[in-house]
Design goal:
13 helices, 8-stranded parallel barrel, two-stranded antiparallel sheet
């Protein structure tokens, strides 16, 4: 089995002084958008599993998406997954948590454990303002985030990236974690211009094609878009708005290289593989195994019910049922694993 080792340092250049703090994700997204670094390549966790996060982390993906919205995940499991991704990747992987809805507490839980956030189904300016308020400290941002007293240990894990910044560690954190919103309806697409105008602290936008098409009463097409006139018009409006505001875009980019390139065009953050999709390939493995092992007579009477094909083996030791048999001459090995003793 060939295992490809992690390539490069990932997001280590954007890590904070402590891995309990978020990376400088806002800057990383902006740098990718401006072409200073390649797009961030991410892994999608659709399953709520700490061991799986620990297994994937050493591969060194730039980012990892923990889907808290659509999994049977609680706060503690989400937190453990984020910490596993941070520490087991040694800072190479930047965690993003898709929170369940717009709940103020959920925003805080994800940010407190050191992740950036993805906020689903943002349709209005008011929703966007609420989310940004929940994610920021201080009235300068209309922030309503509560400062956690001991999630960072004073003098050990609360070192600021910029110790000259007024506001100390809390103002630093405002500039570290990213806020990505998902636009997943025609209403959201139509309101996106106003959202980005009135809420400039949104760092990136993901067009959720699956939910958007479903909400428009169109065939979902597995989230792969489509050519319906109303959908084409909606996507054109989305692209025009994003270009106007010069904001980083995010989305899936999967499949063969040409499809991946097409899906990822213009995006600063791309998710290229996922646990759930990888496991779907097991169906093909199972079918292949059934093809290799069809129904056939087995046991002591099997030889009398069918002819047993044989093949010649070259001189040398051959293991048969765990026992090594030496040959002076060629011997016939029966297909059912038994062998005549050399004479």
């Amino acid at each position: 089995m060939n295992v490809i080792p992690p390539q490069g340092e990932g997001m280590k250049a954007y890590r904070a002084p402590s891995l309990f703090q978020p990376h400088r994700a806002r800057q990383a997204l902006r740098d990718a958008h401006e072409g200073k670094i390649p797009p961030l390549v991410g892994f999608y966790f659709g399953l709520s599993s700490v061991p799986l996060a620990r297994h994937i982390a050493p591969f060194g993906f730039d980012a990892a998406w923990v889907d808290w919205e659509h999994s049977s995940c609680n706060v503690e499991t989400m937190t453990e997954m984020v910490h596993s991704l941070m520490f087991c990747s040694e800072g190479r992987t930047m965690p993003f948590v898709r929170i369940p809805g717009h709940d103020h507490a959920a925003v805080g839980y994800a940010l407190d454990c050191g992740a950036s956030i993805v906020v689903p189904q943002v349709d209005t300016v008011e929703q966007a303002k609420h989310v940004v308020s929940a994610a920021k400290f201080g009235t300068k941002y209309n922030g309503s985030r509560s400062a956690p007293p001991f999630r960072l240990i004073p003098g050990l894990t609360d070192q600021a990236i910029d110790d000259k910044m007024v506001g100390g560690i809390h103002e630093n954190l405002n500039h570290q974690a990213a806020i990505m919103i998902q636009i997943e309806s025609l209403e959201g697409i139509r309101n996106l211009d106003a959202i980005l105008t009135e809420v400039p602290d949104i760092d990136a936008v993901w067009l959720g094609t699956l939910d958007a098409k479903v909400s428009m009463n169109l065939p979902s097409n597995g989230g792969m878009g489509g050519n319906e006139p109303e959908w084409v018009e909606a996507v054109e409006l989305y692209e025009k708005t994003m270009a106007k505001h010069d904001k980083p875009k995010a989305g899936f980019a999967m499949g063969p290289p040409e499809m991946m390139r097409m899906m990822g065009k213009g995006k600063s953050f791309v998710v290229t593989c996922a646990d759930v999709l990888s496991f779907m390939s097991l169906g093909g493995d199972l079918k292949g195994a059934h093809d290799v092992f069809p129904a056939e007579p087995l046991g002591v009477n099997a030889a009398s019910k069918k002819s047993v094909p044989t093949k010649q083996m070259n001189n040398g030791p051959v293991a048969v049922d765990g026992e090594q048999v030496k040959h002076e001459e060629k011997v016939l090995i029966a297909a059912n694993g038994s062998a005549p003793r050399p004479e």
